[in-house]
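Page 42, continued from yesterday. The earlier attempt failed because a stray header line got pasted into the input along with the sequence. Redoing it now with the clean sequence only.
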Amino acid sequence: MPPTPLNPNDPDLAGARLAASVVVLRDGDSGPEVLMLRRAERDGDIRSGVWVFPGGVLDATDGLLHERCDGEDDAAHSTRLGLARGALDYAVAAVRECFEEVGLLFAHGSLPAAVAERHAMQSGEDFVALCQRHDLRLATSALVYHSHWLTPPGIAKRFDTRFYVARLPDGQQPQADKGEALEIAWLTPAQALDKERRLKLLPVTRRTLQDLGRFTSVQAILDEAAARVNPPRHMPRLGCNAQGVRPVLPDEWAYAEIGRLDPQGRGDIWFELPPLRAVALSERVMRVTCGNGSVMTGPGTNTYLIGAPGGPLAVLDPGPDDADTEAHLQAVLQAAAGRPITRIIVTHTHKDHSPAAQRLHALTGAPLVGLAAVHPEWQDTVFAPDHAPADGERLVLGEGCTLRAVHTPGHAANHVCWLLEEEKLLFTGDHVMQGSTVVINPPDGDMAAYLGALEKLLAIDLDWFAPGHGFLMARPHDELRKLIAHRLAREAKVLDALRTLGPCSDEALVPTVYGDVPSARHALALRSLRAHLGKLLAEGRVREDAGQLRLG
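This time it went through. Structure tokens are written below.
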């Protein structure tokens, strides 16, 4: 019986062929080296001529060799791989394919005689017969499960591949079969990734090499892989930009949004956020990104258009008032496609979010909704709301389209997130940002308030974040827990630094507390440090005497 997933109805698995690959390693003078092979050239095959690790699809006969495996039994292997049954087939296939393609045989028994018959093999049945004829016992214990990759939806040939890592068997040397493997090479991960070599690599191969490049020995690679608990499945998705379509990996910012908007793999969802481009995120939500991208604003401030299908719209965070504002507001009006704009909402009054509200109000007459600035520094002090929403207040934008105000002070004293209740989607402004932590700058910024607001969001049923900068974010509660843990870990570093350095100024703490941050950004880090210190001083865990800080 072939391997059986725990959820056989998983739509991501539809049409994918089961496959296994083994990353063969040896220690070299410059660190671990990886056995790479160049695939045969075939018209219409995206794997044509690529450099990969030995491997291939499972064969119906692989399950016949379970009793000849010296490692974990099928039940234990299936648990490790997250399958209901049949996982040992992957290890057998990895051994068989490695033998067929590069002549390395992970086995015990009469190996020289078996290797001599390698080129006579034509099928999985031949490999079973070979094992029986020479009484081979497959050394599946030498293979350590490493990772799980699934070809993106939308590609004609999809593979559900399990990757193993293994040390080069003693006394054996690889040799290309000149069929599937045209040539082979031993390369360090850095050498294989070197752009000067111009190796054609698949995304999974590139990412695996990047992972292996962290280690200084083969044993360290094997130990780390053995310690992995339930390695996640990685499935790239097809995304595009002006240059064309490419796989987008799970750790790229656009990944979750592409999965939401294009689960079938059409490849027409962008993995970039070019300014002025309208993107339909759902039947209720569109996004237009401002042209104010920078170190502080990422790809630019997101303006959202929200409303029931065909009905009036609210515009959230119309952006800055700068040289690009007129073009941006025209793009917003074009995205509205003649639908009336009846509200202009802001999450907070930092100058990259709210100033364009005045010009949009002049164009549409729509009232302004939000909270006025509390402190003037870096704020849009011109913003004067027609309506200041109470915490928990609901705005009905049309049938089946309701926004709820969620007061979230911390980044700014007047910060409000907005929950689209029907989609469990929270517009986070700058309370949660994609790809970076939020600057908390006293006196308007307050670390205790910020952490309290993060905890508050944990109590809300959420499916998505729509941040003020970046793409849609999935698993919002996981993101919140990471942010809380990060802030508390930084707080612990403040206390440890004071314990070590003794009485000192806040400037003296920065190199220790923010040693992981480039020194060019230490002036910015000092602002967040002062926010942490404000919280600790208020709690009595730190005290200050004549400008010198010490533990309380």
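Notes: DSSP finds 14 helices and 28 strands in the chain.
Reminder to self: strip header lines before submitting.
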